[in-house]
Amino acid sequence: MPDQSVLPRQFRVVGQRKRRPDGIDKVTGRARFGADMTAPGMLWGLVLRSPHPHARIRSIDTSKAEALPGVKAVVTGRDFEGGERDDVSINCMAGGKALYDGHAVAAVAATSKHAARAALKLIEVDYEVLPHVTDVDAAMQPDAPLLHEDMVTDGLQPPPDRPSNIAARHEIGHGDVETGFAEADEIVELSFKTEATHQGYIEPHACVASVSPDGSADLWVCTQGHFMVRNVCAAMLGLESSQLRVTASEIGGGFGGKTTVFIEPVALALSRKANRPVKMQMTRAEVFRATGPTASSSVDCRVGVTKDGRITAAQAELRYQGGAFAGAGADMGAMAIFTPYDIAHVKAVAWDVVTNRPKLAAYRAPGAPMAAFAAESTLDEAARRIGMDPLELRLKNAAREGTKAAYGPTFPRIGLTACLEAVRDSAHYKAPLGPNQGRGLACGFWFNFGGETCTTVNVNKDGTIGLSVGTPDIGGSRASMCAMAAEEFGVPYEKVRTVIADTASLGYNDVTDGSRVTFSSGLATIQASRQAIKRLCQRAAIMWGIDEEAVVWEDGHAKPASPNAGDFAPLSLAEIAAESANTGGPIAGHHEVNAEGAGVSFGVHLCDLEVDPETGFVKVLRYTAAQDAGKAVNPDYVEGQMQGGSAQGIGWALNEGYVYGEDGKLQNAGFLDYRIPVASDLPMIDAIIVEEPNPGHPYGVRGVGETSIAPPLAAVGNAIRAATGVRLTETPMAPPRILAALDAKVGDPDGRMTGQERDAPGKKARDGLPDDGLP
Amino acid sequence: MTVTVTTTINGDHEEFVCEADETLLDALRDHLGLTGSKEGCGTGDCGACSVMLDGRLVCACLVLAAEAEGRRVETIEGMAEGGELHPLQQKFLDAAALQCGICTPGFLVAAKALLERNPDPSETEVRYWLAGNLCRCTGYDKIVRAVLDTAAEMRSA
Ligand code: FES
Ligand code: FES
After folding, report:
1. Which ligand approaches the C-alpha of residue A202 most closely?
2. Quick one: which atom of ligand 1 is closest to the CA of B60?
3. Residues of A in contact with B145 (CB under 8 A)
4. Which value does ipTM take for this structure?
5. Which of A6, A67, A682, A749 could form a disulfide with A693 if both were Cys (CB 3.0 to 4.6 A apart)?
């Protein structure tokens, strides 16, 4: 990892709560998101989706739809056979089989939404319905309905001789767990299940595609990565990258869900066929049924501890289903599961499974929250067994500089102990609790990524700065880029304007994911700025007629390096820029990098809640999130990431989950039935920013976007355990499940609420009522 | 079947033609170019399409365009007076009460409606009033604070 030699330093702009440059358009309604674009002569595109979770498509008859007045194009899987037909392509438009309820099977473009809707009804699909499976454990059974006849489990020796729904097996670890468990005084073993959740971004996917007869094409789209969209769509449609220009609109949330394509290639195919621009916009139901939720999981977890609180061994088996295609991310879960702790003997086995559900997409620290739910709940139970404060247990075993993580690396400077201490020292940690209330603590971890990045900075003649980056801004990254450029140039923050350049205007940039943007686009911005500053110094040298080595840059001015260099009044950036025509032309800087050294991030969450023993209703009362940001470039938006991730995690813990019926169909494809937290569900969320500088970044920055969703599931579960004496091992931990657990518990010695106490009016009132329908 | 609708939008007289079953949200966005009101769900669950209809807070996705006939519609585009932001808009900007910003127009319209009927809301009142507006980015913390702070400033102004 490149050591950027982070020295303690005074920042001028970085670290301040600067107003975001794109904010004004967003508070006035002027900002243009995916669905806010139109094009002259535009058609409306709609998708026909499979009503069956698993079916062979015998034939599709589109002739009646095509004959409908106003219909200009109809496409099916056939229209994609000329291009690359990989999983992403087949997910966008089914081939021979529909693999889940909601899988796209055809699409139309028409002059009005009305005509497009009418046309969908006229498409005749002849399905042969096949048996289906939606649960991960069921899908692993030898007699389970098979999704792909050619899927042979990867990572098994010897390779299996028959296909199954198990795409791959992975194993992570070091030491010898049996040796470790032999050293333990207590061993806790628990099994967990989490239901799939959805990112729930408020903006449905939308795009406008326009393909010209010569094959050149433009695409406007809300995405986390327009370069990825370009490459994938071009491959699917048989275009060259240079033929397709993709512009990233403002994006109304993504959280990982907009790191792939769904309707974009379809819109392009329709536009090409119709020879007119096509706009497509998903409905909310389509977003739930046919975009990329998380994996659902089933995890067995085993932890051994000594009486004095040393973790001697940890072991887990993680089974994740990620929908109809390989790639459930169980390996990420295995890599993350015990990483917050320094443990000599660790083993984690991961199974990647396919089922008849939509293909998963990334969701904030993908794979980690369900793993952390298992590990942090088991650890909480272990702390109870040995009578140790759960924070104390974690502090005793916390990973720190020099710890070798089970997934490979030895950590440089990291911030986990600092986060634990920050929570321990908070007022929240010491606050008293009332009856039926409990407090839960959990840690979380995320790797963070760097990746391919390229940035251009232009010095304008009036002394202002234009910065072009290629990473879509989801949560205020333009503000951070402006701050970092202003810091380098020594100009006011307001003098820098950052735009997200389209794919024709800048080199390739990886997707905005892996908490990578402030780190890697920031890194590239700093280096590009430094290159431009070097050129500014060269120009000043020319203006002064001295050697460029004799010029330094300080406080936004070129200055002679020493009195020996000559006696010149400092030249401001604006003065040098104004003269640029006479000193060699425009001044710019550029940087390309495949950034490494992203710097891992840890977080610690503390949750207080109250459980209503009559209804099982959980009210979150107080919530604190501490997280290592390395260096917070804009603390407002770092806090925002921590608060937003916490809220999503609380939703995952308490309410959210895909509900599949026996028929294999999604039962809750809307915000009414898939209920994300609303303002009245939550308290304020206290964010404590910890700053342990990342040695891989010039300012010490670490990504902050994802870690915050890893701890909440267990923080909530541990708090419910503390409040009620029952351990919930399945999400969502919704009232029916909590009541069932309370009913099952009779006279648990260390629970505050005994079975007898519970057996009061609430239970009687519920007797004889049907089950509430949760799985 | 199409209908012609005559209405007042942000103080301006407007006339448009739409399908009889089209929503006010579609009319605003598709026919009038007022794309500040957002469609997050189309089923009344997210509040991103919040507008005022004759002074009442409604989800534009649940109102038929034809129902706007002869009535007064106010949208996010009319919230600032010329170049002068409404105090709520200014506060959202200053207090980082938005991340992606897709929910922001709906929250601003809804929060303005709240402060017009209750200039001194408690935190709980703000949270319940805004419970019809979904935000997936912020965890609501900075939004609720921004509304409370704006209310305090407007009272002392
Ligand atoms: S779009 Fe109207 S409430 Fe969601
Ligand atoms: S700021 Fe993104 S949904 Fe609210």
Report:
1. 2
2. 2
3. 684
4. 0.98
5. A6
In what helix (H) or strand (E) does residue A756 lie, and over which residues does it extend? helix A755-758
Q: How many domains does chain B have?
A: 2
Write down the pLDDT at residue A518.
85
Residue type for A47, please? V
The last residue of one of the domains, among B13, B48, B78, is: B78
Lowest mean pLDDT among A751-755, B65-69, B126-130: A751-755
**In the predicted model, what is the mean pLDDT of residues A531-559?**
96
Give the pLDDT confidence score for residue A6 in this predicted structure: 52
CATH number, domain at B131?
1.10.150.120
A 276-315: CB under 8 A from B: 281, 283-284
Ligand 1 center to B21 CA (angstroms)? 16
Contacting residues of B for A254, CB less than 8 Å apart: 100
Calculate the alpha carbon distances from A311 to A5, A177, A186, A187 in Å: 34, 11, 10, 10
Rounded to the nearest 10 degrees, what angle do helices A522-544 and A477-489 cross at? 30
Query: What's the pLDDT at A7?
Result: 56
Least confident of A74-78, A709-713, B37-41, B80-84: B80-84
Residues 6+ apart with CB under 8 A from A12: A486, A487, A490
Q: What pLDDT, on the 0 to 100 scale, is given for residue A8?
A: 62
Percent of chain A topping pLDDT 70: 95
Interface of A with B in 191-220 (CB under 8 A): 199-204
Whether A562 and A413 have beta carbons less than 8 Å apart is answered as no
Average the pLDDT over B126-139 and give the result.
98
Do residue B45 and residue B106 come from a single domain? Answer: no
Same domain, B69 and B104: no
Judge if B58 and B103 occupy the same domain. Answer: no
Closest atom of ligand 1 to CA, residue B39:
1
Interchain contact, B145 vs A474, CB within 8 Å: no
Kindly identify which residue of chain A lies nearest to residue B88, measuring between CA atoms: A27
Query: What pLDDT is stored for residue A475 in this prediction?
Result: 84
Looking at the CA of residue B62, tell me the nearest atom of ligand 1.
2
Chain B interface includes A40 (CB < 8 A): no
The torsion angles phi and psi of A198, rounded to 5 degrees, stand at: -115, 145
Strand segments, DSSP code E, in B10-155 are 12-19, 50-53, 56-59, 72-74
Closest in A23, A33, A250 to B93, CB measured = A23
Is the confidence at residue A753, as pLDDT, over 90? no
On chain A, the residues whose CB falls within 8 A of the CB of B37 are: 29
Does B71 share its domain with B97?
A: no
Q: What are the beta bridge partners of residue A626?
A: A604, A688
CA dist A403 → A339, A410, A464 (Å) = 10, 5, 46
Using CB distances shorter than 6 Å, the residues near ligand 2 are: A 202, 253; B 98-103, 135-138
A754: pLDDT strictly greater than 60: no
- Whether A670 sits inside 8 A of B41 (CB atoms) is yes
Return the closest-CA partner of residue A474 out of A256, A278, A284, A236. A256
**C-alpha distances in Å from residue A678, one per residue of B3, B48, B53, B127:** 37, 13, 24, 8
Place of tokens 């695409």: A219
* Domains along chain A with CATH numbers: 23-31+450-595 (3.30.365.10), 34-130+204-251+258-290 (3.90.1170.50), 296-448+599-758 (3.30.365.10)
pTM across the whole model: 0.95
Q: What is the DSSP secondary structure assignment for residue A323, as one 8-state letter?
A: S
Question: Which tens digits make up the pLDDT trace of A171-194?
Answer: 999 999 999 999 999 999 999 999
For residues B41 and B7, membership in a common domain is answered with: yes
Mutate to test the pocket of ligand 1, among B46, B51, B133 (most ligand atoms within 8 A of CB): B46
- Whether residues B69 and B95 share a domain: the answer is no
Co-location of B122 and B152 in the same domain? yes
For chain A, give the mean pLDDT: 94
- The CATH number of residue B45's host domain is 3.10.20.30
Which of B59, B78, B97 is where one domain is finished?
A: B78
Structural domain containing residue B74: 2-78
Taking the Cβ of residue A19 and every Cβ of chain B, the question of whether any pair is shorter than 8 Å is answered with yes
